[in-house]
Amino acid sequence: MRANRVRELWAKRRPVINGWCGIPSAFCAELMAHMGWDSLVVDMQHGIVDYQMMVGMLQAISTTETAPLVRVPWNDPAQIMKALDAGAYGVICPMVNSRAECERFVGACRYAPLGYRSSGPMRAALYGGPDYHEKANETILAFAMIETVEAVRNLDEILSTPGLDAVYVGPSDLSITMGLPPGQDKTEPAMLANLEKVVEACRRHHVKAGVHTGSTAYAKRMIGMGFDFTTVLGDARLLAIAGQQALREMRAEAPAPAATPGGTY
Question: Which stretches of 35-145 are DSSP H helices?
Answer without folding.
Answer: 51-61, 77-85, 99-109, 123-128, 132-139
